[in-house]
Structure formats: structure tokens, C-alpha cells
Amino acid sequence: MDTLATRTDAGTAYDVEAVRAAFPALHQTVYDGQPLVYLDNAATAQKPQAVIDRMAAYYRRENSNIHRGVHVLSQRATEAYEAARARLARFIGAADPREVIFTRGTTEAVNLVAQTYGRAHVGAGDEVLITAMEHHSNIVPWQLLCEATGATLRVVPVDDTGAIVYDEYLRLLTERTKLVAVVHVSNALGTINPVRALIEAAHATGVPVLVDGAQAVPHMKVDVRALGADFYCFSGHKMFGPTGVGVLYGKEALLEAMPPWQGGGDMIETVTFERTTFNELPHKFEAGTPHIAGGIGLAAAADFLDGLGLDAVGRYEHELLEYATARVTEIDGLRIVGTAPEKASVVSFLPGAVHPYDAGTVLDRLGIAVRTGHHCTQPLMQRFGIPGTVRASFALYNTRAEVDRLVDGLRKVHQMFG
Amino acid sequence: METIARRADEIVDEFAFFEDWMEKYEHLIELGRALPLIEDRYKTEEYRVHGCQAQVWLHAEHDGGVVRYRADSDALITKGLIALLVRVFSGQPPEAVAAARLDFLGRIGLDEHLSPTRKNGLAAMVRRMKHYALAFSETAKN
């Protein structure tokens, strides 16, 4: 084991207290003076001051509509927004900013692909392949597509640890498969899927792959070209940026060939009542005034993450995950759900005989924010035969001391309900 | 017969005894445990109140001019809150239940649980209790 080396490395390279200082929301007390322990990062992450400042600066000095105005503010806003697109292209290793489409978030990105690429390429008798650990937002858009086109949704099973059954994936990948849609990191279990291998296998049979990367980008360096992803979707708010903005990355050739989705301003070239011609990439898929401040704030979040270095973040979080896993298993009767060998910093568990809602309610009163329930993955919960879990999801600013607070809180829960 | 307001006042007095939230919750948990179990035949989809996280079941019957409620939940805190609602409403005339205001949860500092954003099924359960009461009072008029 390289635990010692990792620890030394993380200890010198990564100063978690300095990182925490950048996040104002972490420094508050809740209820009767309990210092907040925020462990609901898989739902949404807190925002660093740099992101808040960048958005405030936009509204103070640059606010204007983009792409159309001749005046100076419109030019400033357009430049900032397009610079943000280029910044995000660099953040994920895209070949060109034209491959970065701003959306409202991951959900809208998946729906966009389902309603454009999907409508154009998936027909009766075809299949869309997903996994049993998908978030509802990477299930329902495909169900809607399949219902509309007569295609069938196929599901790759997961094993008892919450890892994908790779042989089953290969078996289900056939000439009927028209698209694979797979989550990079499971929000409910933390499983990191071997997306590069999954994509290689799909490409070997000529099938494009959409990756739901919402839970990956806050934890690891993602390079869409190294992965070979055809589409890669993520949300701003889970990577320390604003809510209401996200990204659909798509390979340029695929995006070019796709019909537009929503109609409106900015996505057109010329409009007459007889015929409309459409704008070029990326604007073809961006109808209406976008979340300009959001896109700019998201680029500031990318700056923040690259400034810390996602490799250092990943090492730190991995160590924190190992510590948290070891500590929560000290609790009698507690069972971790999701024990795949490759995991991001998520610990999902059943707190013995106590209902997850009861545990979450008491933890909340102790100042510890966790998520309880099915985590928008009901089929996955059915797979494990459970109604839901308590989920502690850690981010780059969480500490061992916070893990200890969680464990103390869980002991209190057992005392109250035991 | 004790009115709804009188029963609510009793609960407020009972909770005034506790000094902090933990004692309150421990009392709620005890009340939840003491709530008579609902029969399994009512633990079905038909009687389920949808509240996302905790499962809640509610059955009501009109019996000699009053409504009798039986309810259950798989989460104990929710069940304790349900026990309070059943204690206040059960055995009351349907018109009184339909018209009742539920401010006693606020007076004991537990009204946060009534918020629909809590997704514990409690707000939906109160609506369902009142719906039953309204339906029974309409039937009684006809």
C-alpha cells in the first residue's frame, strides 16, 4: 500500500483549511449553535468566494444581452460568456469551444441528446443501453424516446458491490444498440465506472456513448478526448459553480449532424414565415437568452478546481473516503451500500434498524447535513431491495474532524432509537 | 367531549416539560412506538400517503358521528408526529376536523415537519385526514 506516500503527498500539497476558507457557507452554525457539517455534496456543492465574486462582478459591470448588441456592455458580456465556453472546453479537454453547448444542467443535456440525436437515429426495433445505477435523469429521457420511437431500453445489471457487470454489458451490446448512456460516477453509491473501456467496446461495434459526468467533474480530471466520449454531460452546481447552468459536450461531427431542439432567439440564422435557417454550432442548440452569469460563474469554478489541481483533490478525497469508510463501519449494524473497488467520495449506508429518514432528521439537528432516501435512483434501490439509504457525500473541503462528527452523530442516533 | 383545541393545549403542556430538542424527539419516538399498529390490510397502496421518504398509511372511518383514524409509518419520528395528529383528531366530529387549525405543532416547535419540503408525508397526511373528514361530513348531510 502507498498509504504513507499518499498521506505525505496530500499533507504537503493539499491544505484543506486553506480550501475551506474559500467557502463562506461552510462557516456558519445551525439550530442551537451547531457548526455546520455539510456532507450533501453529491446533491449540490457550496460555492467558493471566487465564483460568487465573479457573478457579482458580471451583474455590477457587464450585465447585458449577448451576441446581438452593438454597445460596449453587450460586447463585454459576449466576450466573457464566450471566454467561459472556451475555458470549459479546456477544462474537459474538448477539441474546440464549438463542442461545448451550455444547458440548464445535466438533465437538460441528456434530454437534448435524446430529442435530437435520439429522434434522428433511434427507431422501432432499436435499443438504447443504460446501466442499473443511472440517475432518473439518465433513465426517463430514454424511456420517453423509446416510447415515442418503438425502441427498447436495455439495462446492464450491477453486482452486489455496486459495480457494473462488464460481461453482461458486452452481451447486451449488439447491432440493435444505437446508443449507450452511462453514468461516470454513481451519485447513490459512488461507483466509478470504467467508462473508457465501456466506450472502447461500444465503438468497436460502432455505437456512440453518452456519459453522465455530473458526479465525476467535482472529483477527478476529466478528459473527454482521452475517454473517447461522444457526448459528456455535467452540471455547474455540483462542481462548485452556480445552479441553472451545465454543459453538453459533443463531438463536433455529431453535433453538426443533429437537428436543432428548442426553437427561439439566438439559435437562428434567418427567419421568414416560410422557412428558418439555423445558426452554427454551438448556438444552434442555445435558444433564448442563456444563463449568462451562470456560464461565467461556471468558468470561475473551473479556474478554482484547476487551481487546486484535481489530481491533488482526488488523492485527498480518496484518503478521506477510506477514513470515513473505516469509521462508519465501527457503528454496530451499519451496512454500507456500494463497495465497488473504484469509488468516489460517497458513503451510502443503512444505519442498522433505524429508518434513514429518522437518522437524517437527528443528524440534521446535530448540524450534519446528509441526504436520505432513494437519491433519484429508485431502480438501483430496488436492485438492492432497500427503500433508500443515508448518504454522506464528501467534497474537497471536508475533513476528518467532520467524519468524526458524523460518527458521533450516528452513535447519538443509535442511542435515541436503539 | 374534549375539543380539538383542548387536546392540542394538552399536548403543548406536555411538551413544555422538555428542555431541549433531543428530549422532545425522544418523547416523539416513544409516542410513535406506543401508537397502536395499523392492521396489515390497511398497509396497502390504497391507504398509502405519498410523501417520498417515509412511508405513511392512513385509514379513517365514520363511527357514530365522529371520525376514527388509524395510521402508521415506517419512520419513527414521522410515526410520533402521526400519533399526535391521531390523538388530536380521532374521535372528533368530521366538521371539527375539517375546520381545525394545526398550530399546536408550531407551539411545540415541531412545525418544521409539516413543511412539504421535508418530504416526510406529514403535510400530505394532514390533507388526507381533512379530506376524509370533509367527505364524511358531506355524507352525513345527505
Q: What class, by secondary structure content of chain A?
A: alpha/beta
Low-confidence stretches of chain B: none
Radius of gyration of chain A: 22 Å
Number of strands of chain B: 3
Q: What average pLDDT do the residues of chain A reach?
A: 95
Alpha carbon gyration radius of chain B: 15 Å
Largest sheet of chain B: 3 strands, antiparallel
Strand-residue proportion of chain B: 5-15%
**Overall SS class of chain B:** alpha+beta
Oligomer: heterodimer
Helix count of chain A?
A: 15
Overall 3D geometry of chain A?
globular
Shape of chain B: globular
* Tally of helical segments of chain B: 6
Biggest interface, CB < 8 A: A-B, 16 and 17 residues
* Major beta-sheet overview of chain A: 7 strands, mixed
Order of helices and strands of chain B: HHEEEHHHH
Number of strands of chain A: 17
**Which strand order spans the largest sheet of chain B, edge to edge or round the barrel?**
1-2-3
Taking the alpha carbons of the first and last residues of chain A, their distance comes to 38 Å
